[in-house]
Amino acid sequence: MGKKVIGELKLQIPAGKANPSPPVGPALGQRGINIMEFCKAFNEKTKDMGNFNIPVLITVYQDKSFSFITKKPPVTDLIKKAINLTKGSDNPLKNKVGKLTQKQLQEIAEQKLEDLNAVDIDAAKKIVAGSARSMGVEIID
């Protein structure tokens, strides 16, 4: 029989930059996880993922061991990178802050497809387009 799971933890940590300071240290420490062991493993796995915050799902076992799964960067981060945007619009309906081409939309949708609740690439593109609109980014041809 497998190890008994006693909890799950979701964090977003900059790729290759996990360290014991908050939020990582306290979140893992209170569950008895070896913080440095996690940081080392996470940093090794994410060192080539660029300058993104990486969503990570950590499973904690009764014996204080852990496993983790990394996801792709959030859609909004991928959109910002694609069009060199520092932040979304304060009023997306009135103030447009950028334009995303169909090609960029397709690339982001393909990159995120496995993490999205989408059956195919067209559904994924709709989700990405919705995120773009909520940031004040227009989709252009």
From TrEMBL:
<protein>
    <recommendedName>
        <fullName>Large ribosomal subunit protein uL11</fullName>
    </recommendedName>
</protein>
<dbReference type="InterPro" id="IPR020784">
    <property type="entry name" value="Ribosomal_uL11_N"/>
</dbReference>
<keyword id="KW-0687">Ribonucleoprotein</keyword>
<comment type="similarity">
    <text>Belongs to the universal ribosomal protein uL11 family.</text>
</comment>
<dbReference type="GO" id="GO:0070180">
    <property type="term" value="F:large ribosomal subunit rRNA binding"/>
</dbReference>
<dbReference type="InterPro" id="IPR006519">
    <property type="entry name" value="Ribosomal_uL11_bac-typ"/>
</dbReference>
<dbReference type="InterPro" id="IPR000911">
    <property type="entry name" value="Ribosomal_uL11"/>
</dbReference>
<dbReference type="InterPro" id="IPR036796">
    <property type="entry name" value="Ribosomal_uL11_N_sf"/>
</dbReference>
<dbReference type="Pfam" id="PF03946">
    <property type="entry name" value="Ribosomal_L11_N"/>
</dbReference>
<dbReference type="GO" id="GO:0006412">
    <property type="term" value="P:translation"/>
</dbReference>
<comment type="function">
    <text>Forms part of the ribosomal stalk which helps the ribosome interact with GTP-bound translation factors.</text>
</comment>
<keyword id="KW-0689">Ribosomal protein</keyword>
<dbReference type="GO" id="GO:0003735">
    <property type="term" value="F:structural constituent of ribosome"/>
</dbReference>
<comment type="subunit">
    <text>Part of the ribosomal stalk of the 50S ribosomal subunit. Interacts with L10 and the large rRNA to form the base of the stalk. L10 forms an elongated spine to which 2 L12 dimers bind in a sequential fashion forming a pentameric L10(L12)2(L12)2 complex.</text>
</comment>
<comment type="subunit">
    <text>Part of the ribosomal stalk of the 50S ribosomal subunit. Interacts with L10 and the large rRNA to form the base of the stalk. L10 forms an elongated spine to which L12 dimers bind in a sequential fashion forming a multimeric L10(L12)X complex.</text>
</comment>
<feature type="domain" description="Large ribosomal subunit protein uL11 C-terminal">
    <location>
        <begin position="71"/>
        <end position="139"/>
    </location>
</feature>
<dbReference type="Pfam" id="PF00298">
    <property type="entry name" value="Ribosomal_L11"/>
</dbReference>
<keyword id="KW-0488">Methylation</keyword>
<feature type="domain" description="Large ribosomal subunit protein uL11 N-terminal">
    <location>
        <begin position="9"/>
        <end position="66"/>
    </location>
</feature>
<dbReference type="InterPro" id="IPR020783">
    <property type="entry name" value="Ribosomal_uL11_C"/>
</dbReference>
<dbReference type="GO" id="GO:0022625">
    <property type="term" value="C:cytosolic large ribosomal subunit"/>
</dbReference>
<dbReference type="InterPro" id="IPR020785">
    <property type="entry name" value="Ribosomal_uL11_CS"/>
</dbReference>
<keyword id="KW-0694">RNA-binding</keyword>
<dbReference type="InterPro" id="IPR036769">
    <property type="entry name" value="Ribosomal_uL11_C_sf"/>
</dbReference>
<keyword id="KW-0699">rRNA-binding</keyword>
